[in-house]
Structures are given as C-alpha cells and as structure tokens.
Specification:
Largest sheet: 3 strands, antiparallel
Structural class: alpha+beta
Shape: globular
Radius of gyration: 12 Å
Strand order of the largest sheet: 1-3-2
Number of strands: 3
Oligomer: single chain
Distance between the termini: 28 Å
Order of helices and strands: HHEHEEH
Number of helices: 4
Strand content: 5-15%
Length: 99
C-alpha cells in the first residue's frame, strides 16, 4: 500500500465488498483495484463486467488473470494495471482448484 501511495495515488478506498469495488472500477468511479485471497466466485462476474466496459483484469504478477489463483489487479488501462502489479509483492493464498 505504501508503494502505491508514493506512486501519486489520489486516495485509497476500501468499501468492504470486492465485487462492488470491481463494479465501481467498471463504472469509472475508481481507477484501479487489487486484492489477494479472492475466490473465483468473487471475480468471475465482475471480470466480465470490467472487460465489457473496456477495463483490464490481470494477475498480480502482471500476467493473464487466472480465476483460480485467488489474486487480481484490475484497472481502467493496461498501463495503470501494470504500474500496480509491479508495485505489489504477490502473496500466495493457494488456489481454488486445489482446496
């Protein structure tokens, strides 16, 4: 979080619902989102909504999103998503298909 604040973030908002936060991104009310520990059912529908709105959804490593990895970076642009992914230290919460 501290690394992102040094990247000239205007603010950090935590609203308590990952799906709602991802839909805020799709609507343009937020610029980016990242989270570790989300399950595939938390991400599936919101991923479709963000991509249909023109946003980017990827793994926290900067690679393609793997719904089973329990981690996500989403942003309005690829550049913003990569900036966030590069600032993160990936945390492994396990995979949904291995539980």
């Amino acid at each position: 979080m501290e690394r992102l604040l040094h990247a000239k973030a205007h603010g950090v908002r935590v609203i308590g619902s990952s799906t709602l936060a991802l839909c805020h991104l799709a609507s343009g009310a937020a610029d980016a989102y990242y989270q570790f520990g989300l399950h595939c059912w938390d991400l599936a529908a919101a991923t479709v909504i963000i991509r249909e709105a023109g946003g980017i959804v990827m793994d926290t490593s900067g690679g393609p999103l793997d719904l089973m990895s329990c981690r996500v970076v989403a942003a309005g642009t690829r550049e913003m998503a990569m900036l966030i992914a590069q600032a993160l230290q990936t945390i492994n919460y396990g995979r949904d298909d291995e539980k």
